[in-house]
Amino acid sequence: MRDFFFGLFGLAVLLGLGAVIWQHNQRPWVRYQREFYAQKEKLLIEAKNKARDVRETERLDREIEKIRATSPQVQQIALSHLNWADRCTTCHLGIEDPQFSNAPQPFRTHPEPFLSWHPPEQFGCTPCHRGQGLATTRDAHGGARNWKEPMLPAEFLEASCATCHRNLTKRVAPIWFRGRELVDFLGCRGCHAIGGLKSAEKIGPPLNNESRKVKPGWLLNYLKDPRKYSAETRMPNYKLPEAETLALRDFLMTLRTDPDPAEAVRWDPGEKQAARGKKLFEDLGCLSCHALAAAKPAGFFQAPKPGPELSRIREKINPVWLVNYLMDPSRVQPGTRMPLYRLTRDQAQDLAAFLLSQNAENSKDQDGEPAFQPDPARAREGKGLAIKYNCVGCHEIEGIRQGEAGPPLDGIGGRNVERLDFGSNPKGKDRSLYSWLEAKLTTPRTYREGLKMPEVNLRRGEEKAVVTFLLSLVARPFPELHPEGTRVAAPHTLEPAVPSGGPAGTLWRKLQCTSCHRIGNSGGSIGPDLSGEGSRVRRAWLEQYLKRPKPLRPLLQARMPDFHLQDSEVRILADFISTSLWSQDVGRNSRGSLDLSRETAEKGRLLLRESGCIGCHELEGKGGKVGPRLDRIAERLNEDWIRAYLKDPQRMFRGAAMTPNYGFDDEQIRALTAYLLRGVP
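and the corresponding structure tokens:
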């Protein structure tokens, strides 16, 4: 009997062992590995049949034998410097094998250059892709309940770049970069703290003198639906009830800090003034910052416009306020980006007459508005609403220092889905952090009515960029991703800054240079980046250009305005630019060291034509117009900057369109520079 039970027990053990072996062989990763090795062997045999060299045939035979001897096993990347381990390559075996570039998943080769920048043996997989690195089942890709960081979908993958890299550029992570731009542009930091700090800059104009500035009928309609007036507005739509709209309108129409400018009250614009104003509008280059339906800008390539569209300004602005604003923008509206053009009163009235002549037929109803008297009770209610909706997050309002802000966004990118408020949304239906964030951006009251979050003005697809940025706000930054001895030298970065004080700082703020130009990490993108402008251009040319700017690229719509600077002001700006905005890649005292012989210049002339430079640049009356003209370039650009730029365009001039890098050697760069500076008579 004992032998019977012993035999039965032994049979059970054998059956159990067989079941374990069977279950092991049925695991998806085992099946994937066998399929991968079979495909790899097939590719090696095909390569062997095509080989013409004995040594190559022998090498392939060894590879084939190695593949045949390989048995399925768990692959693991141990990252001791991160206290991390990933088993993703248990299934994704072909990530570094170019032969699998067109294979289906999970065998497909990983896109480059990301693996070149982040070798798997040093960085693993989940620091970028997230998910369950230790898992070897389908749940590793996300969807597992209570897993804090599910795997990122491919469309949001750039979010992980910002986890380690603090200074991402548009070329490396364009979606994330655009998302960060939108967060700043739309003023999200006005309500939500990011990085522990709220934004000190308010994106909207101050409202302290609103009753002098705008018409009450326009204001009421604008509060109801901002986009109905301007499709490009940054003002979000709060979907206010009628009573709240009236209350806010009445409150804003009580705000009045400046006295009435009596000298402008009797102004009555006429057709002659409008004609003079049109010419002034064109001469000042207003279309570089503003769109106007009745005016077509010169050039072809558009630039982003920081100013509002002006076609319907008559519906909105009081003429008296407009004239005074055109004369001295910063005095009338502190914090404005509008530069000071030093207009006389007559010129300001001419320009205002032209602007107010636009869309006149559709503005007649508001031209005849009776004098408006706000209701005191509604105005008091409106002040409370301004606090409730945190209007001071974007606008300065006299008497209100703080509103009811939204929650901070730090860590939102790693928020557990169980902590999100989906309201009555059916469980399991699109319940993810990504869908929740998208809904909050596009239709913020999807899950619950009565929330204060407004609808922000995003174009189709831009919500993906903002979500990508938000997903990068995680509480798991990696301070050190380079194991000992593997750190790569960081590329050189410019560290210029906008002048903060002194005569240069005062003049810089008055002219609002950073509305169009970027310096370091501050400023706009309409004009060229000025971070290294001092090392780029010659001092004599710079002074002449500041005094009388002329278009350098006729196809660009943006134009440098003529500020009618005095000689002393030109010298102040030129001194700052020439000394402070200098690239460390360009020497300061090596001018004149280049061989400018006729022979060297002739080599440069031939190389320039062989390289197709005149396809974009005009030279000697021939060529394209996309890039700047190369005639008389010796008067404008410094020798050392030209050489550094030809060596690496994007390094010297961030955002430069001159791509790709042509890989000129030092001799070719010297020849090209000699031709550009000397020419061949």
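(Above: one complete record from the training split.) The chain has a mean pLDDT of 81.
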